[in-house]
Design goal:
The chain has eleven helices and ten strands. The protein is an alpha+beta fold. It has three domains: about 15-120, Acyl-CoA dehydrogenase/oxidase, N-terminal domain (Butyryl-Coa Dehydrogenase, subunit A, domain 1), CATH 1.10.540; about 140-230, Butyryl-CoA Dehydrogenase, subunit A, domain 2, CATH 2.40.110; about 230-380, Butyryl-CoA Dehydrogenase, subunit A, domain 3 (Up-down Bundle). The strands form three sheets. The protein has a four-stranded mixed β-sheet, with helices on one face. A four-stranded antiparallel β-sheet has the order 2-3-7-6, with no helix packed on it. A hairpin with a 4-residue loop joins strand 9 (about 270) and strand 10 (about 275). Helix 6 (about 230-265) runs antiparallel to helix 7, helix 6 (about 230-265) packs antiparallel against helix 9 (about 350-360) and helix 7 (about 280-310) packs antiparallel against helix 8. The two termini are about 20 Å apart.
């Protein structure tokens, strides 16, 4: 499940991406975040600007023009974006998680397009029948001709649905044993359809909605890796990227909420007492609790990255814990920020209620906090990660 040093891409041009990222966040991403939330529109202007800055190619090979970044760079990109716009951060996280797979197993053309910021991809794992149990796809793959395969599935809640250029798509194996097989599926393939617009509680701009494949035909070479090896690829490549990136998403949100709360507490005064809210001892103590929650989440993410980088014995357990730990911390910080900032936090122009709504999403995104707790219990008690069929 963990990435070894040999599996991680070497460092390269990604060092040039991070300074440009900050410029795009300040000039484009942050200014439109509130409007994206209000309208529920996809953050296309932000994604296009990030593509030009090299962010979409951050994990692509240097020889193709990419940044050759690894997990530390993915987490830093997502953390910085989450502080400004959660929807944009989630779109980029799903793109980079899928791009990691395509970089290892995809064809050169799509890899080059991603490296040059000309292609947005995403994961298509969750299904109507198995919901967040990504490891149990119901979608099928059947040989339709000597050179082609027919894919049928009902995917649910796919980020960037109808907006991405391709999906890293899971099905049951074509012929081999195993839990699933992965495919690179162009979004404009005949037979693909997405269901309406996304009108959600939080992450309102991430275009998460169902996608249906009805007799979709692809070539055999659209298969990513070996037939039946999809779960192994998901565990070794997708999960490390998504779980640490999702943790960074929660950390960035929590950091932003803490900063917003500090601004409110220090800038709001009780005129009849001639003091700021921050001068109240109980308020200070409650704010201190939030700072400790954020610090714990930051430290846990940093320790997880260290464990994965050096191949520490507890790396798998840390990886399975990190999304749940940080998601719960971010939710608690969001709740605390709403309480401390009072009625002002309920006003949309403050941005706190938006981040509160966004912070709750990580709990229910697959693998959910409940599923991760079960995984951690299984691993630490010496049981298999999944029940045998």
């Amino acid at each position: 499940m963990t990435q070894t040093n040999a599996e991680q891409p070497s460092r390269g041009g990604v060092d040039d991406v991070l300074p440009r990222l900050d410029e795009v966040i300040a000039d484009v991403v942050a200014p439109v975040a509130r409007e994206i939330d209000r309208t529920g529109s996809f953050p296309r202007v932000s994604i296009d600007a990030l593509a030009k800055a090299g962010v979409l190619g951050a994990v692509s090979s240097v020889d193709l023009g990419g940044g050759a970044g690894g997990l530390p760079e993915v987490t830093e990109i997502v953390r910085r974006l989450a502080k400004a716009c959660s929807s944009t951060a989630m779109v980029v996280l799903m793109h980079l998680s899928a791009a990691m797979v395509l970089e290892k197993y995809g064809q050169r053309g799509i890899r080059a397009a991603i490296a040059h910021g000309e292609h947005l991809t995403t994961l298509a794992f969750s299904e109507t029948g198995s919901r967040s149990h990504f490891w149990a796809p119901g979608g099928t793959a059947r040989t339709s001709s000597p050179d082609a395969v027919r894919l049928d599935a009902r995917k649910s809640w796919i980020t960037s649905a109808g907006e991405a250029d391709s999906y890293v798509w899971s099905t049951r194996p074509l012929a081999a044993d195993g839990a699933m097989t992965l495919w690179s599926l162009p979004a404009d393939t005949t037979g693909l359809g997405d269901a309406g617009a996304f009108d959600g509680f939080g992450l309102r701009g991430n275009a998460s909605r169902p996608v249906t494949a009805d007799g979709v035909v692809v070539r055999h070479d659209a298969m990513l890796g070996d037939d039946g090896a999809g779960l192994d690829i998901a565990l070794s490549t997708v999960l490390p990227t998504f779980l640490t990136g999702s943790a960074a998403f929660s950390v960035g949100l929590a950091e932003s909420l803490l900063e917003d709360t500090a601004v409110h507490l220090t800038g709001t005064r009780l005129e009849h007492l001639d003091r700021s809210l921050a001068q109240d001892p109980l308020t200070r103590a409650q704010f201190a609790d939030l700072t400790m929650l954020v610090g714990q989440a930051q430290a846990f993410l940093a320790d997880t990255l260290t464990a994965l980088t050096i191949g520490r014995a507890d790396a798998t357990v840390r990886l399975l814990q990190v999304k749940a730990v940080t998601a719960e911390a971010a939710s608690a910080v969001a709740d605390g920020a709403m309480r401390l900032c009072g009625g002002a936090a309920f006003r949309k122009e403050a941005g706190i209620e938006r981040k509160f709504r966004d912070a709750l999403a990580a709990r229910v995104m697959a693998p959910t906090t409940a599923a991760l707790r079960d995984f951690v219990g299984r691993v630490t008690l010496g049981q298999p990660l999944f029940d045998e069929e």
